[in-house]
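Deliverable D5.2: sample structural annotation.
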Amino acid sequence: MLGIRRRIKQLEVSLSEKRRLLYDESSGWIKFLGLESLVHTSNQLVDKLGSQAVEDTGRLNQVKPTLGAIQEAVLIFDSARRIEFANEPAQKLFPQSGAMKGARLESILRSSSFLQFLDAYRENKQLKRMQVSLESRGDLLWFEASCTELKGLSDEESISTLLVLHDITRLKSLEEIRREFVANVSHELRTPLTIIKGFAETLAEDEASLDRKEQNRFIHKIVDNAQRLHVLVEDLMSLSRLESRPDSFERTEASLEQLLRETIENNEGRLNLSEQVIVLEMDPQIKPFGFDPYRIHQVLDNLVENVFRYAPEFSRLVLRAHLDASSEYVECSVKDDGPGIPEKDLPHIFERFYRVDKGRSRERGGTGLGLSIMKHIVQLHGGSVAVDSVLGEGTCIHFTLPYKPAPEVPIA
């Protein structure tokens, strides 16, 4: 009885360890117990599993270098949607998921649109790709998902599915920006064009019934809105040049102090001398350094123009330049003591066409592009922009520029 148990235990262990049972020494026992056919079948199964494992390893070794070199996330899963392979980009995309191999696809890619795509692909193999969205680390990501069937990795008679996720999140974002930009431009152009068209048609149709004063008023309206269109188109072209040709600015050794003084001189004639003053606070450590003087002059003019346009009641306007030696940046700022900007508007003031007071901005000729242009210019120099404002106390807009002065040449 003990011998029978020992032989059956040997068979159980060999099957669990997936190795053949070498029964030549005990063939008498095997035949006596009537287990010869069972042992033979078990050994065949172990041989088949072994050859399949070798084949699978070879197949995976052939697939891995190819799929590993692809930048897109690639997953292979079986008919039960268990993941058989995930390349490095896929593992980076879902680092919180732990070991992906063997996991259910639904536990990794939690997305209703993704599951709809898989269901649709299972029903119709002609459906090769679809745009799907899913959340990863708190961000909404968009992918163009595509599937194709291939020979199973675990069983040569099974079918696996190769899934490729091409990240189109940035394209989606750019598409949304383009849509908003076109809508905003259309709106901004439509208003002055409608005014020009209306007054021009009235002049043409009712000229005889209009007195000279009315005619002049209509003509001034047409001229003002034509000027508004001109400024808008110029700003759009400037923004387009900055975005399409980021290398178009010329960095030369120039004096920031001279630029700031020129900006003040150009605007002193606009001051109410009894009540308003422009002050320069210049760090004496700042020497001439590399930047595009034309573009930075454009930035300063824009900031000062905004003060005169939106905070005309200011009493003190300060242009300041300070050297942050630790970070090797020059920080410039334009600060006024005007009405300030509401806190809810501060995160948006550098966006295209954003206006704090839309009605008053249009009346005063603003296009809503000035600060966006300023931001582009500063970022092309390698700097950054920021704003501080307290309602009723004033506004300060900062920008930084990398400070790399020319080395001093020793006097011979």
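Annotation notes: The two ends are 109 Å apart (CA to CA). The mean pLDDT is 78.
The annotation will be released with the project's public dataset once the embargo ends.
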